[in-house]
Write the structure tokens for this entry.
Amino acid sequence: MVEISSDVIRGYNDTIILSILMKEPSYGYGISRQIKEISDGKYAIKETTLYSAFTRMEKNRYIESFIADEDPKGNGKKRTYYRITDEGKAYYGTKCEEWDVTREVIEKFIADKGE
Amino acid sequence: MVEISSDVIRGYNDTIILSILMKEPSYGYGISRQIKEISDGKYAIKETTLYSAFTRMEKNRYIESFIADEDPKGNGKKRTYYRITDEGKAYYGTKCEEWDVTREVIEKFIADKGE
DNA sequence: GTGTCGTACTACGTCTGTCGTACTATGTCT
DNA sequence: AGACATAGTACGACAGACGTAGTACGACAC
């Protein structure tokens, strides 16, 4: 099985996290599981990478945190949730556009992909 | 114009350089110009990034350096050329395969690209 | 004959994102 | 009692990319 090196995803971790928050607010562990699920187990973000991304993106105002209870059935336990901001949505949009260009460029150098 | 962030290309700079050396041996400045040309000016590798990649890849035995004269018309001036090794070719092949997986994964998180 | 441009690098230090390791704490299942 | 899933936090290390700067040579303009 082909392994995805982290240096490749680097620069898109923030985008991946934001794409999950585009649907609805979520929290660390939940986002981590969703990433694994959506990628069919091909990519698992490291905890440290994820939480440091939260810190960075909150500083950049791409996301906002708030404390909330666990799912209804839960007792009184709290979790830190994150919600995407308008700036975050704009950033996500930019990254999606950038992706097209990046992909095009890289594929010019990849065997059997160039013109 | 959409700017390509370096973190995205990161992890593929070596691959891009090797793709040029797959055709024929070349040298720093020449490779730099070829990258710009092939990418239609969309990507220009920084000098420092390029030369540090040479050092790294020579250490990894993906490339070998040799000194040669400038083009025939040149006088006695020398340049450092690089040639891809068999290990380098194998590495390039692996990276090309990895690219397919990476691209697939990332596109699951990019708007209008998912399933 | 001086200055600028293109070529062809090298050196050094900084920054950023990722990762390894480790630790805390609670609830559930066995 | 111990393992496992959940839900994090803390801290330090590392690698690749980048900014800045400097060297050196030849060609060409003015």
Notes: The CA atoms of residues 93 and 110 of chain B lie 26 Å apart.
